[in-house]
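User: Could you write out the 3D structure of this protein bound to uridine-5'-diphosphate? I've included everything you need below.
Assistant: Certainly. Input first, then the structure.
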Amino acid sequence: AHEAMQPHVVVFASPGMGHLIPMTELARMLTSPRLNFAVTIITKAPTLSSSEKDKESFRSSLPSSVNVVFLPTTDPYDNSFTQIFLSALSSLPALRETIRSLKSSTRVVALITDFLSVDTIDVARELDMPFFVFGPFNLMALSFLLHSPGIDRETTMEFCDMPVIKLPGWCTAIHGIDLSAAYQDRRSEPYRLSLHMANQILKADGILCNSFYELEPGLASILKDKNPNHPPVYTIGPLVRSIPDQQVNSSICIEWLNHQPCDSVLFVSFGSEGTLSSEQITELAWGLELSQQHFLWVIRTPDGSRGTALLPEGFTERNKAGLVVQSWAPQTEILGHKSSGGFLTHCGWNSVLESIMNGVPMIAWPLFAEQRINAKMLVNGIGVALRLEVQDGSVVPRNVIATVVKELMQGKGGRDARKKALELKVASGKALSDDGSSFKDYTKWKSSIVI
Ligand code: UDP
């Protein structure tokens, strides 16, 4: 009788919208009639600084078929890599109890955890459940993670001293300094945690990666081949936010875009956490002005103060073809609008997928985490973005910004990148259709756990 019950997947997500959004979409996908799982998302809160109201709005954004359980939390309000990792550790007893209780009345078949909460593998093993890791990044970032314990064993060299890193299947090489801050000092705690994370991922029963075959064909063929050195890899993307959850500035932006010519607007945004220095904000303003292109800029300051105060005098009056909004904008709707023709982005993976799915070419301005790897891949490997030289700690000058913006919106480089973006838009649409590459991976994954 147990076998006849609907298979139930438990999804554990650490706080942080960057992985919670795609994991919610994963849950939506799993509960669709095509796959027909029951899903419970277990999390502490959307972010470590979330209020009860944020939790409620997260709950109400879920499809009715997806259940959510919030675990109690006393964590400090700090969304750093280390804190999120520790937060997952402190959740283990509550997670164990919640899964036990779900198991008593439903047929729980698997635990899927985001990559920061990999210590939940202990709970899965104890309760005798298959354990999967969700990677809210691309295959290139995954490939680096999977190889990192080996590199750590083979050399004592600091990553920042490695001029070239190119692993099998990579579409481009990177420098050691392109890796995230955790890899810049091998004696640091974040480095130790990153290695631990990689070693735990290597023990999983499989990895679900938010990418799709056609986006990274070289690496996909290598990673998806059976390999005793790592768990099976499934490409199950692109999973991007399908319903807007924050309505801030929505009508202003869309109303304004409705009045702009087709493909004319450059959208400028650095994700949910990225900020520029005050000096860089002013320089970016001059760069946008000098480029003489239409733009929609989401301005966010490090201390949450009004960014518009940093704009040069008379900026708004002189730039009638530009719109500046504070802190947040409905990004997926903006990128899907016919007036959007380019995206100046920090290369957060969700932003990149949203741009690609809408056929919008990019300018890569990476800030932190694995964003420099993403930038190299987009610019040198795939050709869907133009490069902006960003030196750590120095301000990118206005003329450099103006030149690359003009090139994206009017030049040959922009035309080539747009052509590539449109090809990928078509491919991304197909990937999740019934016989698409990603959907095939869902079915393959399902048959590995449901007998
Ligand atoms: N986002 C948004 N409006 C904003 C800033 C961000 O809707 O003003 C959304 C964006 O669409 C994406 C997510 O927040 O889904 C940001 O994720 P990403 O991986 O790009 O960057 P992160 O915020 O994790 O650095």
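Residues 131 and 204 are 6 Å apart (CA to CA).
User: Perfect, thank you.
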